[in-house]
Amino acid sequence: MAVNPNYQPEEIFKKRAEFGVDQSIRLLSKIIDTSDDKNKRIDAIRYLGLASKEAPALKGECFETLENIFISEENIEIKCEAAKAMGRLKLDKTLKPLIWILEKSEENSELRLSVLKAIRKTRFKDNEIALFIKELASTYTAVRDYVKNQLLILNPAILITKLMESLKNKSISNKLKAEIIKLIGFEISSINATFKDSSYIEVKYPEIISEMTNQKEVLLTEISQILKKDDYNLLESSISILNILKDDIKEDIIKLILTDNFIVKKNAIIISGKLELSEAADLIVQNLDSLYNEVSLASIEALGEIGDLASVPELIDILNIEDISFEYSDIDMKFQIMDTVKKIYLKHEENPYDKLYEYLDMNNDTIRESVAFILGEIGKDEFVIPLINLLKIKNVDVKKNAIIALGKIGNIDALDHLIDIVKSQNAYWLIKKVTTDALFNIFQQNWYKFDGDIIELNRDLNKKIALIIEHLRESEKENYKVKLGLIKLLERFGDEKALDALLKRVNDFHRVVRIHASNAIKKIEERLELLDTE
Q: What is the pLDDT of residues 35-69, one digit of tens each?
């Protein structure tokens, strides 16, 4: 039957029953080989792949046409369409040219993805799985996402076994090792999603536990070498993996802390912290003053995660920057140490705080101001009296941190002492400003008591507000930032009694004070009007 040579590929495909599938395939092949129209050739390749399903005997012929165009063609769109069509053939011999393109170079991301999809349709056994694992380190996000999703379709035990086999290959890059570890950790977390331990995975997939236990040395070695704290996914996956092996690898992790390789040492310390290995605490303490700042910082954080109370004196000693033996101390380390001490005590809330109180009695302002900060972060009411005692100290940093801590704790027993600081003519303006913020925080935490049932408490709180009002009204020469702090407090907690003092500040010499006082008056008046309508 004669066929119009001007037929488009779609027409040929639709009329394949009329023309005959064999002739339709040959017509499409001819268009692919001879046409100068790129889009027409792409359509012909697409329909050739679809038509080949109906002519098994001609699949070999279709393959030759597609392979030729796939290898020789320079146009990426045509090569991609040829790869897709080859995938539809489902012939093992298509794997050779497909893999050849992958190994040839990085190529185009779209082409690489098309080739991988064609391979997946053709066959997905050991060799192909290994190839997909290799592609986890691709520079293309789309490729990485695709191969990851395809690998996750596999049975978890099979996948983890294959990933472990790849991880043992010493020639693979650290980037690929990291991606393999991420995928193992992701799979484990997905299986055991609703459990904190490995109980479910042990019952459902005992072969996974067995495989990981057998390969524990490989896992720990690779993780300790490539772990990066700023790579959150790698860190989380690594800990998911090692948590399952925790009981079997404790001694191995501790040995790694003793290594001279500072990267491995640092990572072993990080792992010890994340796994809360109390057995490693003494060795970690020895690394607090390491020559390598990264090791010291990792040690500080790990001790907080472990919650080792015995390490608190060592940590506090580092805060004494006057001690020249700790010449590597810096401000970041200081705050990390204070945060670590806080974490340690929060893990042992039943433990007394006597040791911290002892530091407040030391004649060392550097340590006292740090411990005051820590007490504020922990936030116990029992700290109020020791902190109030620090208000007598002349050192600005000690006093400032004690005031801030009292504000965080929010206990009303501190109000009189803080108000005295605001009223003092000798107090430094910065201390006063910090004090106004602390007062605001305390009133904020106790605002519900202003209208409470305890009459004496209500009266006492209002007396304290009255003292603040009086100071704002009478202290014309007060620093403007202190005035702003007091205005903010009265705007939130003042009533009609505060209006007189605020009106006086509307005429203040400082423009910002005038604006804030005016706004505070409006807020109070609106609040009073609302109360009158209730």
A: 888 999 999 999 999 998 888 888 889 999 999 99
As a dihedral over the C-alpha atoms of residue 238, residue 243, residue 246, residue 247, rounded to 10 degrees, the angle is -160
Amino acid at 117: K
In 152-215, alpha helices (H): 156-167, 174-191, 199-204, 206-214
From residue 89, give the alpha-carbon distance in Å to each of 20, 43, 54, 68: 19, 16, 10, 15
Q: Decide if pLDDT at 324 tops 80.
A: no
CA distance 225 to 403: 45
For the chain, how long is the longest CA-to-CA vector?
111
State how far the Cα of 426 lies from the Cα of 217, in Å rounded to an integer.
66
Average pLDDT over residues 461-480: 92
386 phi and psi angles, rounded to 5 deg: -60, -35
Vertex 53, ends 49 and 56: CA angle to 5°?
115
In this predicted structure, the answer to whether residue 429 has a pLDDT above a threshold of 60 is yes
Rounded Cα gap, residues 421 and 411, in angstroms: 17
Contacts within 8 Å (CB) and 24+ apart, 210-218: 211/157, 211/160, 211/161, 211/164, 212/160, 212/164, 212/241, 212/244, 212/245, 213/245, 213/248, 215/164, 215/167, 215/168, 216/245, 216/248, 216/249, 216/252, 217/252, 218/164, 218/167, 218/168
pLDDT of residue 323: 47
Cα three-residue angle 176-180-185, rounded to 5 degrees: 150
Among the listed residues 301, 297, 183, the one whose alpha carbon sits nearest the alpha carbon of residue 240: 183
The 10s digit of each residue's pLDDT in 127-158 is 999 999 999 999 999 999 999 999 999 999 99
How far apart CA 478 and CA 85 sit, in angstroms, is 82
Judge contact between 293 and 281, C-beta under 8 A. Answer: no
Q: What SS3 state is found at 323?
A: coil
Task: Give the pair of three-digit tokens for residue 331.
Answer: 């401000």
DSSP state of 56: G
Long-range contacts of 130-133 (CB under 8 A, 24+ apart): 130/162, 130/165, 130/166, 131/99, 131/102, 133/162, 133/163, 133/166, 133/176, 133/180
| Whole-number Cα distances in Å, 65 to 31, 49, 92 | 11, 11, 16
Residues of the chain with pLDDT > 90: what percent?
70
Q: What is the DSSP string of 35-46?
A: ---HHHHHHHHH
Give me 117's structure tokens. 């999809």
Q: Tokens at residue 183, please?
A: 């995928």
Q: pTM score > 0.70 for this model?
A: yes
Which candidate, 398, 354, 392, places its Cα nearest to that of 376? 398
